[in-house]
Amino acid sequence: xxxxxxxxxxxxxxxxxxxxxxxxxxxxxxxxxxxxxxxxxxxxxxxxxxxxxxxxxxxxxxxxxxxxxxxxxxxxxxxxxxxxxxxxxxxxxxxxxxxxxxxxxxxxxxxxxxx
Length: 115
Known about the structure:
Oligomer: single chain
Radius of gyration: 16 Å
């Protein structure tokens, strides 16, 4: 069986722009992110999709809905909580410097188990 997989990352959020760790924080797209979603939607307008999946977080779902609004090959977006970005625990909502301090000195196994 063959298939093509099209992955689209969500548009920019204010947290992305200001280097704040998001993880499971449910933050919306910024104005730039909304424009990025419109641009990728325009690019994918004629692409045939048989399945669309998004996490339940606003930034991902809004990006998918923007694509759906201009692409008639699908109406439903399956929302999978398991598709969320990984959790960064207490670092969520903090600057990237806080997360870098939290992971400093951890080995590979500790990093995989962390979060």
